[in-house]
Amino acid sequence: MPLDLIASAFGPVQQEYLLEARQMQAMSFVAHIPLVCFGVAFPALVVFAEWRHHRTGDPVYRTLARRWSKIMLALFAVGVVSGTILSFELGLLWPGFMATFGDVFGLGFTLEGFSFFIEAIFIAIYVYGWDRLPPRTHLLTGIPVIVSGITGSFFVIAVNAWMNNPSGFRMENGEAVDVDPWGALFGNSYLAHEMVHMYVAAYIVAGFLLGSIYGWQWLKGNRSRYVRTALTISLTAAAIAAPVQLIVGDWAARTVAKEQPIKLASFEDLQETTKGAPFDIPPGIEIPDMLSLLAFHDPNATVIGLDSVPPDDRPPVGIVRASFLTMVAIGSLLAALAAVFLYVRVRKRRLPESRWFWRAAIAAGPLSVVALIAGWVTTEVGRQPWVVYGVMRTEDAVTGAGGIPIGYATLAIVYAGVLAAVIWILRRLAARPLEEDAATTTGGSGHG
Amino acid sequence: MAEIPIVLILVGLAAYTVLGGADFGAGLWELTARGERGSALRDHTHRSMAPVWEANHVWLIFVLVMAWTCYPEAFGSIASTLTIPLFVAGVGIILRGAAYALRAGTTTPREEGAISLLFALSSILTPFALGLVVGGIASGRVPVGNAQGDEITSWWNGTSLLIGVLAVATAAYLAAVYLAADARRIGSDDVAEAFRTRALVAGLVAGALAAAGPFILSSDAPDIYDGLTSGAGLVALLASGVAGVAALALVVTRRYGAARLVAAAAVAAIVAGWGLAQRPEILPGLTIDEAAASDTTITAVLIGFAVGLLILAPSLAYLFRLLLTGRFDPATAPQPGPAPADAAAAAADPTAHSSLRTTLITGAVTALGAGITFVSNGPLRSIGVALMLGGAFACFLAVASLDEADPPAVPFPTPER
Ligand code: HDD
Ligand code: HEM
Ligand code: HEM
User: I need a labelling partner for A274 at 20 to 30 A (CA). Which of A197, A409, B7, B15 fits?
Assistant: First the structure.
């Protein structure tokens, strides 16, 4: 079969349910990404707790590390299956995209596959190896889990960075030719900020969510050392990450301004190209020159407006703008909360005592998830109508198969069930008596 | 060059059938494990599988990503035509994973029973659906293009059903052999015998299905039938048959370890036979050469693969060594934690806690890095980011290791709630 025939077999199709396909993809990401935050950040916190136990001999750290490692494994299992769904969906929903560009970005996923292997292997050894491996060895088996969590997200983000800022190939008759997969994935000016921003986000989300759970117990009056130690570790991680995120977010915005001006314009719904563009904060506060300052660190810089491209090439501005503002607002609140925490922790060597602090800390967990999702919506919806920015439209990527609404509804029901199940299991695990994890030796079954 | 990735894909598929298949089969056997004794079987199944199922599952991911990277058009065609069984397999995988995680939280037998039923059903559904997919491809029902094949008959046909059922039976068989071996290692002889019986039943069923295979293929998928009954394809088919019978004989004589290896060889042979029979086409009218990505991409993938393998192989070996030498078994003597004397020494060690000075220095480094990141572009910014992240990491260590001000008012462990 000649090459151009193959390419034309993946020409545009009629797909009534493009919007549903997009929503289905989005829903699956919303399920996967918060779990992934635990896959990235949790191992480091668990290993830290275990290391503290080795360092101080204090049994509370050991109990904490054991307890957390079981939660980590349960969340990892759900992360694995939700990630598998994403891999399936790339083919099921976007065969046009995969057929045309699979060879450009696929290398990223191949490398990611190895990283998952390592993560799955060592997470099992770590969790099932408590009391079964010499203590030092056990601690060391935690390191590959941390590293592969980082590399796993690195390779996926490389793919996403490429979709937003594609390079490393040339289009000819609808085919990608002259493919340079290494350059496409790793020589990309989007990769660094996306990776760092996501990585820091993972610590914010995992830290504040743990903070919500233990903060709730604190408010109910449980000030045990176990709760205090859990709060100290998780909130310290989140509180250091939150202010850093402001700087990284600024870096992200500056890169977007340079490479995806239309996305940037939709952050502010900027219609016309403007020198010294202002920034509106709802409701109706306008800060002059602020957008220029934000995007280029120069109040007089010219910001490209939406009208520089035909309406067909603009993203759904309302959604992008709302999500961007949500992320920035939450990010700023989290950083303020973090400052309070760090001050009390360092100056007074204890946890904050004000009830207001704890109410805010409980809210911070869910809010950080909202910021995370809002950030991805900013990136992904802001890229629309392109699936590969400026090269392939989402409508040309979609499958020609029928039944998308049925798949969407089914998956929605399944995920609702999984969400309920995850909450149930976490409550159950938390309700177990601590002594189960406190014992130096567990004569009984080594699994949980 | 164009054919190397497909060989790796088939190797991955065989590994997934053998290793992942045993996981699915283990789930299936939960259906037969009811009542008092059943609970012993279920516990055993669970203990054996829990440490490995995630790693086994990654083989599937491996097959998928290799396929879409190295044969993108073929992958797009398959995914868009065989949408329904692939989606069903995906849902089965979610339910299975959820059931796995849930089991850790069950307390009553009723809860456990319900979860185990969910686990069993999804363990049957998933390999069956994946078998339907393989059947659709092997019988040439996936035309090149976006959703160009029939939505239903592409996977609801003799070949697909044969392979779907065969996949379930093989999984059940492999699981039973594996679990029997594992039970004997930890000395649960009655559990081992229970799984031996199951292995024999499943082995006979799988054998009967495999024997019926050629009759179904000859009418439903003549191309693949021709390929499998001549030349190299025939050799592979015969090898698979011989290995299958030998594996069964080894189960009869209770040599489970050898039985596993030989059964794996039977699976590998039939997967290879499929590849040989279908060669040189990957989909009707599309040869492997035409479907393959450019040489640059394939080279890149192979380099990635080689480097990945260097790390993966020892890791996998370590996991399976721990598992097969019984390190995770309940009977293994636990390793003690740090001795109490050590603990006292460690607690008295003044460097076990960080100081305010370290905290402030690391905080300052983070702030300096943040400042550089904020004001600069290009290479200088990279330095800023590195300082900021390194500083933040050190700062976390320092702040989280600060001593608590008031000595613990509540001793540990404390009774909760
Ligand atoms: C806890 C999460 C979180 C918080 C507090 C923030 N962000 Fe964010 N943001 C994300 C989580 C996130 C993310 C992980 O969801 C995204 C999606 C893609 C990415 O690279 O990071 C993202 C994307 C993203 C983008 C789009 C990047 C692109 O399209 O490539 C910009 C411009 C910002 N962020 C800017 C900010 C600013 C100025 C923040 C400060 C207040 C901020 N973010 C806080
Ligand atoms: C690699 C990492 C990726 C991440 C983290 C990511 C993240 C997201 C998120 C969070 C959404 C939700 C947006 C919404 O709510 O509408 C989304 C939407 C979407 N993603 Fe991605 N994505 C990634 C890669 C991909 C890939 C490989 C595709 C393949 C085609 C893709 C296509 C889409 C599409 C079409 C939408 C729907 C956009 C819309 O609703 O307007 N993304 N993505
Ligand atoms: C197109 C988008 C994505 C696809 C196709 C995808 C695919 C997958 C798959 C198949 C797994 C299971 C691996 C296993 O079997 O162990 C997984 C898990 C994981 N993914 Fe994703 N993923 C996507 C987006 C993301 C994003 C945006 C991140 C991070 C920033 C991420 C990070 C991870 C991590 C760390 C894991 C390990 C499991 C865990 O910790 O929960 N993935 N993903």
Answer: A197
Q: What would you report as the CA-atom Rg of chain A, rounded to the nearest whole angstrom?
A: 23
**CA gap A94, A99 in Å, rounded:** 9
| DSSP output for B332-393 | SPPPP-S-HHHHHHHHH-GGGSB-HHHHHHHHHHHHHHHHHHHH--HHHHHHHHHHHHHHHH
Residues A95 and B147 sit within 8 Å (Cβ to Cβ):
yes
Beta bridge pairs of residue A280: A286
Q: Cβ of B79 and A132 within 8 Å?
A: no
- The number of helix segments (H) and strand segments (E) in chain B equals 17, 2
**Residue B107 in tokens:** 């307390």
Identity of residue B141: R
Residues with CB under 6 A from ligand 1: A 164, 190, 194, 197-198, 201, 204-205, 245-246, 249-250, 252-253, 256, 327-328, 330-332, 334, 368, 371-372, 375-376, 378-379, 382
Is the preceding omega at residue A283 within 30 degrees of 0, hence cis? yes
CA distance A374 to chain B (A): 23
Q: Are A73 and A122 in contact (CB under 8 A)?
A: no
Instruction: Tell me the Cα Rg of chain B.
Output: 27
- How many other C-beta atoms lie within 10 A of the C-beta of residue B251? 26
Contacts of B94 (CB under 8 A, 6+ apart): A81, A82, A84, A85, A414, A415, A418
At B1, is the secondary structure helix, strand, or coil?
coil
| CA gap B271, B262 in Å, rounded | 14
- Determine contact: B108 vs chain A, CB below 8 A: no
Distances in whole angstroms, Cα of residue A14 to Cα of each of A2, A10, A11, A402: 24, 12, 10, 10
Within 13 A of B178's CA, how many CA atoms are on the CB side?
Answer: 30
A113-124 core/surface letters (b: 16 or more CB in 10 A; e: else): bbbbbbbbbbbb
The two structure tokens encoding residue A426: 């976490």
**Do the chains contact at A48 and B397, CB–CB below 8 Å?**
yes
| Nearest in space to B316 (alpha carbons), one of A71, A242, A48, A124 | A124
Helix runs in B253-284, H state only: 256-278
Write down the pTM of the prediction: 0.88
pLDDT tens sequence for chain A (448 residues): 556 666 666 666 677 777 888 888 888 899 899 999 999 999 999 999 999 888 888 888 888 898 899 889 888 888 888 888 888 888 788 888 887 887 888 888 888 888 988 998 899 899 888 888 888 888 898 999 999 999 989 999 999 998 888 887 877 777 777 777 787 778 788 888 899 999 999 999 999 999 999 998 888 888 888 888 899 999 999 999 999 999 999 999 888 888 888 888 888 877 778 777 777 777 777 787 778 877 887 777 777 778 777 877 788 887 888 899 899 999 999 999 999 998 888 887 888 888 888 999 999 999 999 999 999 999 999 888 888 887 788 877 777 777 777 878 888 888 888 888 888 877 777 777 666 665 543 333 333 3
d(CA A224, CA B413): 8
Which of B21, B274, B275, B248 has its CA nearest to residue B128?
B21
ipTM of the complex: 0.85
- Cα gap A315→A306, rounded to integer Å: 9
- The answer to whether residue B346 neighbours chain A at the CB level (below 8 Å) is yes
As a whole number of angstroms, the distance between CA B272 and CA B7 comes to 9
Compute the Cα dihedral for A223, A229, A230, A232 and give only its sign. Answer: positive
β-sheet bridge partners, residue B286: B283
DSSP 8-state code for residue B294: P
